[in-house]
Specification:
The complex is a heterodimer of chains A (about 290) and B (about 260). Chain A is mainly alpha-helical. Chain A folds into 2 domains: about 1-50; about 75-285, Orthogonal Bundle (MetI-like fold). Chain A has 12 helices and no strands. Chain A has helices at about 1-15, 20-50, 60-70, 80-115, 115-130, 135-145, 150-175, 175-185, 190-200, 205-225, 235-240, 245-275. The radius of gyration of chain A is 24 Å and the shape is globular. The termini of chain A are close together. Chain B is α/β, with parallel strands linked by helices. Chain B is about 35% helix and about 25% strand. Chain B contains 8 helices and 10 strands. Chain B has helices spanning about 45-50, 95-100, 110-120, 140-150, 170-185, 195-200, 230-235, 235-250, and strands at about 5-10, 20-30, 35-40, 60-65, 70, 75-80, 155-160, 190-195, 205-210, 215-220. In chain B, the strands form 2 sheets. Chain B has a 6-stranded mixed β-sheet with strand order 6-7-8-3-9-10, sandwiched between helices. Chain B has a 4-stranded antiparallel β-sheet with strand order 2-1-4-5, covered by helices on one side. In chain B, helix 4 (about 140-150) runs parallel beside helix 5 and helix 6 crosses helix 8 (about 235-250). The chains are: A mainly alpha (about 290), B alpha/beta (about 260). The interface between A and B is medium-sized, with 28 and 32 residues.
């Protein structure tokens, strides 16, 4: 009874405020962006005043960005051929390495989270690898795979798998025992228990691990391409830098930043969607 | 199908620290019967129910469903837990929650669908299958839990203080709902509650437990006419008499009966 009346009241008071909320959102958007705008303006001024070859004004970088990465036909979404060849190369390495890390990390994490014995046996190994700075593995990866795509994939995988595994193991070990009891009393088959109960119940922590690993994976994608490769975004940066094409270098840098932002936004969307159920309060909270 | 509790004891802990929560308890819930189990807190009523559900093992004694000893959650037995928010799976839609309960019974798609629709209709949630538990009020969520228990068409349904977390009006609605679906599904019910009125209103028989250690203090037959009615039944003199008797047994176990 009470919950309905309250919801009606809040519903009624909310509606005229829609415009105000939209305004506030725009204002907070401006608030978030002003610092970026300021930095860009200062960059522009510095670039023009100093005339430095190494730090060109941002306007010229963006113009170069347009020339190099954009300008393709509509069928290519207005993106240049270079964009398609380099970005797909890099992102496909990232997708293979990170995808494998997600599958292996969640798989092993579930096993570690479910079995105290296995966790005690292998926990130290996992923590050891997780503690190693990932870039240290780079020479080893080159040693094993040579200068080939598999090296990049391997490094991205090895760098991002541990944080996924540890978060999954913690999440799985912390699943509310009431849900497990409920599943047991429903006599669900083992695969249902794991795929439809344990993993979704641990999803908040698993996704937190995935978000961190996404960043690590992107860093390793670029670093491994800076170090040893013959194509890809990181490679473009190295080549431009070593042939004194600083505008190209900076515009590749901008592109990598944008890719990072887009991937993070996409991940955030998926995360919100998957974790809608966490707003457990539901109608009771009204 | 009868549920037989045969000289069951349950202790937690070992050796000198062992605490006996239930001692040498025997009880039979007969087929189609509705038995309330009521008692003061700490009398082991929920423990008893969880053992009947095969979710806890007795320290000694045996529980049987029909002739089969219960060693794990048996087929044909469903449980409705007290805390719906921690027993329903909030990441699944209502429909998915119900079909998950059916995965063990290996039914065809069509049969599953019609069972789910029927169960939702029985609890007054027809057409709400696509909602998620977090979009529902507590009372609605507990209806979903009841539908999930019924969708497997069990012979026995165990309910562990199912309405402890909902408000009084919703509680009355849900009580009447359970009394109705019990006939619709021909199900035997064991119903744990700490609410004395509720224990009398619902049951054919009331088992009163005493605490420290948990044991059966009384086994009372409820001779109130059915169908029960929230107003009429509670005006009945027999209701008042049973209610005070159970109250005395639960709240003042040391005073002798006055009648």
């Amino acid at each position: 009874m009470t919950s309905r009346t309250t919801s009606r009241i809040t519903g009624a008071t909310m509606r005229p405020n829609r415009a105000a909320i939209a305004l506030r959102r725009t204002a907070s958007g401006v608030g978030n962006l002003w610092l970026l705008a300021l930095v860009l303006v200062l960059w522009e001024i510095y670039g023009r005043v100093s005339g430095s070859l190494f730090v060109p004004p941002i306007s010229r970088i963006l113009q170069n960005f347009g020339d190099v990465w954009l300008g393709g036909p509509a069928s290519h979404l207005f993106l240049s051929d270079l964009f398609w060849s380099e970005v797909t190369t890099s992102l496909s390495r990232f997708a293979r390495g990170w995808g494998l890390a997600v599958v292996v990390g969640i798989g092993c994490g579930v096993v570690l989270g479910r079995s105290r014995v296995i966790a005690q046996m292998y926990g130290p190994v996992v923590r050891f690898f997780a503690a190693i700075p990932n870039t240290v593995l780079l020479p080893i990866a080159v040693q094993i795979f040579g200068v080939a795509s598999n090296m990049n994939v391997f490094l991205i995988f090895l760098g991002s798998v541990w944080v996924v595994m540890i978060n999954t193991a913690d999440g799985v070990a912390g699943v509310d025992p009431m849900w497990l009891r409920s599943a047991r009393s429903l006599r669900v088959p083992r695969w249902v228990l794991y795929l439809r109960v344990i993993v979704p119940a641990a999803a908040p922590q698993i996704l937190a691990g995935l978000r961190v690993s996404l960043g690590i994976g992107l860093i390793l994608m670029v670093i491994s391409e800076l170090y040893a490769t013959t194509e890809g975004l990181g490679f473009q940066i190295v080549v431009a830098q070593s042939s004194f094409r600083y505008l190209d270098m900076w515009s590749a840098f901008v592109l990598i930043g944008l890719i990072g932002i887009v991937l993070n936004l996409a991940f955030g969307r998926i995360e919100t969607r998957l974790l809608r159920w966490q707003r457990r309060s539901g109608l009771d909270a009204l | 199908m009868n549920v037989v509790v045969d000289r069951v004891s349950k202790s937690y802990g070992r050796g000198a620290e062992a605490r006996e929560v239930l001692t040498e308890t025997s009880l039979t819930v007969r087929s189609q019967e509705f038995v309330s189990i009521v008692g003061p807190s700490g009398c082991g009523k929920s423990t008893l129910l969880m053992m009947m559900a095969g979710l806890l093992r007795p320290t000694s004694g045996e529980i049987r469903l029909g002739d089969e000893p219960v060693t794990g959650p048996p087929a044909g037995l469903s449980v409705v837990f007290q805390d719906y928010s921690r027993s329903l799976f909030p990441w699944m839609s209502v429909r998915r929650n119900l079909t998950t309960a059916l995965t063990a019974s290996r039914l065809g798609k069509e049969e599953q669908r019609s069972r789910v629709e029927h169960a939702l209709e029985s609890v007054g949630l027809a057409g709400k299958g696509e909602m998620y538990p977090w979009q529902m009020s507590g009372g609605m969520q507990q209806r979903v839990a009841i539908a999930r228990a019924l969708v497997t068409e069990p012979t026995v349904m165990l309910m562990d203080e199912p309405f402890a977390a909902v408000d009084a009006q919703t509680r009355a609605d849900l009580e009447d709902l359970v009394l109705r679906v019990r006939h619709e599904y021909d199900v035997t019910v064991a119903f744990v509650t700490h609410d004395i009125d509720e224990s009398v209103y619902m049951a054919d028989r009331i088992v009163v437990l005493a605490a420290n250690p948990g044991r059966i203090a009384a086994d009372l037959t409820v001779d109130l006419p059915r169908p029960r009615d929230q107003v009429e039944t509670k005006l009945d003199a027999r209701f008042a008499k049973l209610r005070s008797e159970v109250f005395r047994l639960v709240m003042r176990p040391d005073t002798p009966a006055t009648t």
